[in-house]
Structure formats: C-alpha cells, structure tokens
Amino acid sequence: MSKVIKIRKGLDIKLKGTAEKIIAQAEPASTFATKPTDFPGITPKLAARPDDKVKAGSVLFFDKLRPEIKFTSPVSGVVKAVNRGERRRILEVVVESDGKNESLNFKAGDPNGMSRDEVRQKIMDAGLWPAIRQRPYAIIAGPQSEPKAIFISGFDTSPLAPDLDFIVKGQNREFQAGIDALKKMTRGEIHLSLNSAYPPSDVFTGTGNVSLHYFKGPHPAGLPGIQIHHIDPVNKGDIVWYINPQEVIIIGRLFLTGKYDATRVIALTGSEVLKPRYYKVLSGTSIEPFMKNNLVGTNVRYISGNALTGTRINKIGYLGYYDSQLTVLPEGDHYEMLGWISPGLDKFSISHSFPTWLMPSREYRIDTNLKGGVRPFVLTGEYEKVLPMDIYPMQLLKAILVDDIEKMESLGIYEVGEEEFALCEFVCTSKIELQSIVRRGINLMIKELE
Amino acid sequence: MNSIRRFVDKIKPNFEKGGKFAYLKSTFEAFETFLFVPKTVTRTGSHIRDAMDMKRTMIIVVIALLPALLFGMWNVGYQNSLAMGLERSLLDNFWFGFLRVFPILVVSYVVGLGTEFIFAQIRGHEVNEGYLVSGILIPMVLPVDTPLWMIAVATVFAVIIGKEVFGGTGMNILNPALTARAFLFFAYPSYMSGDKVWIRGLMNGQGIVDGFSGATALGQAALNEHVILNTNGNPMTAMDMFTGTIPGSIGETSTLAILIGALFLIYTGVGSWKIMLSVFAGGSLMGLLLNAFGGNTLMEIPFWQHLMLGGFAFGAVFMATDPVSAAQTKRGKWIYGFLIGVLAIIIRVLNPAFPEGVMLAILLMNVFAPLIDHYVIESHIKRRLKRARVSTNANNI
Fold first, then answer.
1. ipTM of the assembly?
2. Domain that holds residue B121
3. What does the pLDDT average to over B252-275?
4. Of the candidates A304, A309, A306, which has an alpha carbon nearest to the alpha carbon of residue A416?
5. Model pTM?
6. Is B39 part of a structural domain of the chain?
7. Min distance B393 CA to chain A CA atoms (Å)
8. pLDDT averaged over chain A?
C-alpha cells in the first residue's frame, strides 16, 4: 500500500438508518426525470416536447451556452411533462417509461483504439458528459478544456453514505472501460482515492491506468475536492476533472455495448425508512416505488443525496443526476421548550456542550430543525475544525459576501465547491447558509472571468 | 408545556405585521425564542444542523462565570466583615454580598437588555443573545461600591458605543463589558481605584478596624509598600491570591474559581484555550523579564503571582477570549493573546497610574486584532501563491 494521506479535521455524523447490504426488489418506477437544477451554471434549452417518443440517450435539453453539452433521457418512452418553476425556469423534464428500456445505438468501440475527439464525441452524444465535473467552480467540465488530472473518489464518507465497494461489485470490465475512455481525455494521471480503513473492492484495486491513493480519516475525506487538495491542488489557471465511480461504469458500458444503460445502485437510507436497503434503478427514477409501505413516520423530508449536500425533493420526486443515495429524515417543524438550556440527551453536537459526546458510537435521529436563530458570524475557529484544507473558510466567505473577486481568488475559491462547506454549515452556531454563499461566489467568478 | 405554547400561539398574531402590537415584534420574538426553540427548518444546503446555537453558547459562558460570581458574592461579605471587624458565618457573608451584588446584576441586565431591545426594535432585527454574557461581565469587573446609576450609565454607553453603532453582536470592535469598565475608569476615576472602593461600606465612611487598609495588592505595590498586606492585616500570601480572599473587583479575585470556569469553557469548546494559554504565557514572560531587573515592589512581585493578581486571570479567561473582538485566525489568536499578556504586565508595572493594565491591554489588542489577522491572512495568501508558482514551474519542465 502506498502512503496513506491522513485527514485529521472533519466530523463523522452518525445517523440512524444505514442501508443493509442487500439489493432489494421494488417494482420499476413508471416515470423518470432529468433535472436541469442538478447542474449549476447551465441554461437549459429544450430539445424535446411533451408527447415526443424518446429512447434512452435521446436528447431532452442542452445547455444554451455550450450546446455540445446534452442531457438525455435515461429510459425509453414518452416525454410526459416539462415542469417549470418561478419565471418559467425548467425544473424537470419527465419521461414516462414504456417498460422496454431501449437505447439508441451509439456503437460499441474500444476507447484505446479511438482518438481523443472520438471518445469525447461518444460521451457527449449519449448525454454522459454532464457526469464529468471540473474544479474550479464545481460545474460540468468544459468540453474544450484539457484537465491536468482526473480524480475519482472510491469511497464516500458523508452521513449514511452508500458503500461504493458494494455498489460497484462485479463491474470490473465496465469500470476499466470507463477509465480507459477517461484516460484519453488527459495527458495527466487519473487519481483513484480509496479508504485505507478496509480492503477496497478489486474493481478499484485491479484497475489499470490509474494511480491509487489511500486516505484515512473522518468526513470530508471522501470528497473529491478534499482529495484534489491533498494530491494535486488546483491553482489559478489549472483545471482538473472529477467523476463518481458509478458514472465511470455507465461510460464504460457505453463503450462496451454501444448503449446508454443508466442502471445504477442506490442506497435508501435514513431514520424514517422502515427497511434501509440498496436498490438497482435507472438514473432519474421516481422515488415513489421505494417509499411505498417503507416509511416509519409521516412528517418526513425526502432528500436525493445525503443529509449534508442532498436536494430536497417531494414524495413523488426524482433521484438527482449525481446521487447514489436517498435519505429520508424527520421534518423538524416543531417547537422545543427551553431547548437552549435543556441537557439534550438525544442531541448531536461537535461541541462538548451536550453530554452525548461521551457516547461516540451512538447513532442519532436528527431532524431538519434549524436548531436556533440565524445570527451574524460570532464564533471563530469552528469551520476550521471540519475543513481539512489549507484555506481560511471564514475569510473566504466574507470575501464572497462583499464580492471581493481578488480576495476570493487569493483565498482559494478555485479549489472549493459547496460540498466542502457542508460540514462548516452543519456546525455553524450562527446557522448561516454557507453552501449557498459559496455557490454565489463561484457564480460571480464565472460571470466576471469567463 | 402545551398550554404555554397554545397561549403563545394565541397572542402571536397581535405582534405580527398589522397586529395591535406589531411595533413590539422583536421583543415578542426574543421572549418566544427564549421559551421555545423555533420550528424553523433548514431550507437549502445542509438538511441537518448541529444542536449548538447562539443561545446555548452564551449560556455556557454564563455558567462558566458562575463560580467566580458566587465566590465574588461571598468575598464581598467576607471583606466587609474584616473591615468592620465582624464575625460572620459563611452563609451570612454570602448573603451580605448577594444583597449588594444582586441589584448591580439587575441594573446591568435591565438597562443593557432594554437598550438592546430598543435597538432591535428600531432595526427590526431579532434581539441578539450577546448581552446575556456582557450583562454578567459588567458587574463582575467593577468594584463593589460603584453606585448603581453609574453602572446604568456605563451599560448604556457600552451597549450603544461599544456595540450597536457597529451593527450589534458580531460586528463590534471592542469588548462591550470592558468598554463599560473603561468608561467608568476614565469618567469617574475616584470610584474605580484607591483604597476605599473595593470593600462595601468604606465609601460612605462606615467605621473600620484600626490599621486596616482596603487597597488591592496592586494598589499597595504601586505605592512601593514593601510588604503587601491583606485586608486582615497579615501579609498577603500566594494562597490568598489563588483562592481570592483579597480585595478587588467583584468577580476577579479568585483565580481558583476563574480556572474552574476556564476548564468548563475549554471542555465545551466554547472558549479558545489558545488565547487563554498565550495570555498567561505572555504575562509570565514579561513578569520574568521585569523580575530580572527588579527595583521596586511592582517589579519584584514574582511573575507567577502577577497572573493571580488584579484582573489578569479574569481578563485572560473571559475577556480576551470574546470571539468577536479577538483575533479570528489560529495563528492570530496566539499572537493576540501573547501580546495581551505582555502589555498587561508592562502597563501594570511600568505605569503605576494604571494598575488595571489588563483592561487597557485587552482593549488595545481588540483594536489591533484585525491588523494581526490581516497579516496572518497575507502570509497565507503568499504561501498559496508560492505553491501555485512551484506547480506551474513543475508543469513547464
């Protein structure tokens, strides 16, 4: 084993409702959606209308500013609806499945025998380009850019995270094919990071064309942004790409079979789920079938993704593009009497002001209550404890709040995305929405500099 | 609990927009959130949040202050009994002190919170919790014989000039409680120093026992007295200083009680141990240096005794660590604390007109904290730039 990178700062939030390692059966969903809101920085332009017949891989919409980036249907069927929000913003394009799951044929091909442009074109045509994201800015990778390296995190440390080793099991060929395709995209290396706490899956360790790294430590050690920072940090002018293992596998399938097969394994987690299990689904699936008769409470919040960075969806909502996890948590819309002074025997806090810190292995049922009022920045040194980067988080946030581009740049805005600040947001005593501040800063940088 | 909640829900509409008492919205909110953690849920970003909030943070500081406050109450009675030559039981001493200190606390809270409520009302903000701590700190750093009206004036000054003009808790530059103390120190010096103010009753000339001095250790040392006497007429021992059976401001005398509070703050993670430690380190170093020169009583006080005298320990633990007015970066905190320690001892020893050097040192460093942070951040930026250059060079090769 090569050198282990130790992450000391961070926090593992132990929630109730880890998924049992069983792939459960549920009847397939009837509707699927692709959501432009999953992709920060794009302006969607529709390519399909309601009642159009589509196959897996048919274009539903594309980015107005970078039209080569296409977003395609994960199933075959009929476009059922285009749901819009305020100011006619497109929220989701819903496809009703015909149950056949036919894909357009993109032709199989060994990426090793193809040119860089051919590989890129194939990924784009099938609508898989959005799977590749870049730093700076944590947005979909620029199709014309060449990254100095590509990063893949082979483990997830977020609350109730799915076990990626379990998810990728048996897909050695697909993963290797995906890696080979990605290898064409960069002259640099593909860095695959693994958790040194347990022996990782042979899907990861047996793959060629990658350099392996081992990490040890609490969340956010599993975030690509943190791994990039410790392996090959992003400086001004650098571009790196990152992608999730499941998406590598989907790209691999495209090259092996010529089909867009959006099958993925997701974990259904959270304290409100009766039987937290894994499910084999298609990207963008409606969550309805998994929730049926499978919930403990009624007043719950459905989250696509994890409790820290996931997106709130409704009961018949859809799985997000990058997500391998659904979380169901109790909604916290209730009052608590004198909560600020109560001993709090069931409360979780990074500070030692609740007695529960004496029980480190305890699992919690945390609801969505804000647990206090929003205040200006008062306490200091809180964020630093959970952000294992050479970055001053509060100073960066303040630079963003006053739109100081130069400061943002020198304090490291290019290295961060919202997700690195999710733990900071969790621990923030002032209850400030840090992730949206970070995204605001990134958007400003894109607007001013690109 | 449900009946209280129902009652609050029933009267709530009166305070909403358009209600009869809409102009009292902030006040109502303050009381409501005091009784109940609101039912607000997370909107974007992290769906779950840490159970810690500002109210709990502040209340933890208040709890940490309690040992020093309770000891202070007892000590007020004890010092008074010594001065008057009375025999009192422990409880009688405490009760005597309680009767004197409690009104000060009430004045501080009523006047301070009143000012805060008015400002929150005018601005349409929620009332901030910051004053929960300032309200107890102000009485604790004052001599027991300070007239109540003076405390009221100082409190109003501290809340308005020290905090609200900058935008409220989180925006202030100076520590509000020390602003109050400094205001009184310069506006009414005769009430803030000398040998009469530290013990209840001396100001209005009540009878005292013969040969009695009510001056603090530092006050006596400043006069270059060779043997520093405690209130009971015996030489003051290090043990007296540590337990706190000496004259001084209400909350500052007992190093032991302050250390208990400090441990609690460090244990809960609310107070910065870096600042506390570095203040003590700075003070020790400066004390050692002055000991090496010697020359007068103040310079000859052993450096470790300096740390237990006056407001040094209290300032290090409860004042310097105020997160808003302290340095915010890790390295900045070390520098900030260290300089407070050094300056406190320099002012105290080399300028006997200001035996309360700690207060001035902290206020001075409050002003300089942003500058310290600025340089820490600048060096951080330089290091990041260097990293960028190294990597571009590597790429070019």
1. 0.89
2. 54-206+214-377
3. 93
4. A309
5. 0.91
6. no
7. 12
8. 91
